[in-house]
Amino acid sequence: MAHTIVIFGASGDLTSRKLIPALFLLFKKDRLPEGSRIVGVSRSHFEHEEWRDALRTTTEKFAGKSFDAETWNRFSENVFYQAGDIKESSDFKKLGEFLSSIETEAHTGRVYYLSTMPQLYEEAIKQLGAAGLAEDSEGFRRVIIEKPFGTDLKTAQNLNRSIHTVFREDQIYRIDHYLGKETVQNIFALRFANSIFEPIWNRNYVDNIQITVAEEVVIGRRAGYYDTSGILRDMFQNHILQLMMITAMEPPARYDSALVRDEKVKVLHSVRRMSGSDFAMNTVRGQYKGYLQEEGVPQHSQTETFAALKLYCDNWRWKGVPFYLRSGKGMSCRTTQIVIQFKNVPHILFGEKTRSPLGNRLVIQVQPAEGIQLHFETKVPDSEMKTRTSTLDFSFRQAPGGTSMPDAYQRLLLDSMTGDASLFARSDEVELAWGIIDPIIEAWKSPAAPDLFPYEPGLWGPSEAGEWMRRQKREWFDVC
Ligand code: BG6
Predict the structure, then answer these.
(1) Residue 288: CA count within 13 A, CB half-sphere
(2) Between the CA of residue 17 and those of 51, 61, 63, what are the distances in Å?
(3) What are the C-alpha distances in Å from 212 to residues 28, 351, 357, 433?
(4) Span 303-332, pLDDT tens digits
(5) Which residues are catalytic?
(6) With the C-alpha atoms ordered 342, 263, 325, 18, is the resulting torsion angle positive or negative?
(7) Above 0.95 for ipTM, yes or no?
(8) Does ligand 1 come within 6 angstroms of the Cβ of 215?
(9) Of 215, 218, 236, 337, which is best to mutate to test ligand 1, by the most ligand atoms within 8 angstroms of its C-beta?
(10) Element of type H or E holding 42
(11) Where are the alpha helices (DSSP H) in 114-222?
(12) pTM for the full predicted model
């Protein structure tokens, strides 16, 4: 079937930085379905040729060495532009006419990509419905929705409700770009294509799990969005809980979108909700020094740019194992990693060294050093019986034939065209995730909120986060 991808918000940054380069590279790899077309929609006026020229410049920049003029010329023949305002129903009528004029096949599938301001999602969906553009008798109609999906549980429920009046759940693809990362998908392979890890992947052998998403960057010019969002909405409700779900889930019976998502959702059901003094005991929040001086940040803003949470999954596999989730801006380096810290041996034979906090752990490096390391104790040669921590190191970039790490959007765009929703968030998943995060946001606004600790940019967040761990007789794995 031929495909048309309609991008609303065509003049935005995401379109030029991510979406078009991803579609171009898919085309270059011969992965885009035959006869795929791309139609950009936004308020500005462009001729098709003008838009293609602008995209050529940005694609050359963002696709880097993979860009070549010959492929671009063939690709861009199928790139079109249609001016339109999401608030104008007459523009949707014109869009429908334009799409019909270029879709000459009997059946064409369409993916509508909402890359607009989130405040426009509902309106865009309503207009698509009213103009008959969601009607799928002549080819599938799907909609991709960017994050943020709501700003709390209530707004997410309202958005789900209003999208469901136009699209069925199986037509809705809620993007979380972390799921498009190769290293995140590799967690499925690591856990479910090997039998060596799964038997010890549980409360009997695991002491704790740490999921860190650290960013060196600060908020820059994003104060307008960031100050109303804060790190819990920006990173935890979506990306970090996704990483936690995939780390903690049970194996699905088949790799199938319904079954995979059923298992992920069960993890969220099992997360113990915090109440009362839990918020002070199980959360740490911080704000980097200099945040209040960023352009557009209100003088006394209490928005957190760092958070650490301790969550528990009350189920048979994980009962009693803390999941430490941590993220911050202005940290010492950019790294996303999942650390599975195994329990100490039950009986120490070889001196205190065996207690090394570094040994006995599996580290999944999501980015930027994509790989996996297993740290374990070995004997120091030519010593009596001293041990030291050694590492088995797998690197994606150095693996034979596995050097290319495509951007997350390539995989997600392709899956939306082929109709595989496994790597997209389902309505219940998004709502349950808000149900975990909302009470923490509320508690942090209350008079009994834990302190907001200032921290120097370039460190691992506030020192209190380290002390908090040490009080629990644990250490963060702080390695760049
Ligand atoms: C986005 C957040 O969703 O993810 C940003 O809004 C954050 O604040 C970004 O910087 C991180 O994504 P990545 O892929 O660079 O880790």
Answers:
(1) 29
(2) 14, 9, 9
(3) 34, 31, 17, 18
(4) 999 999 999 999 999 999 999 999 999 999
(5) 239
(6) positive
(7) yes
(8) yes
(9) 215
(10) strand 37-42
(11) 121-130, 153-164, 182-192
(12) 0.96
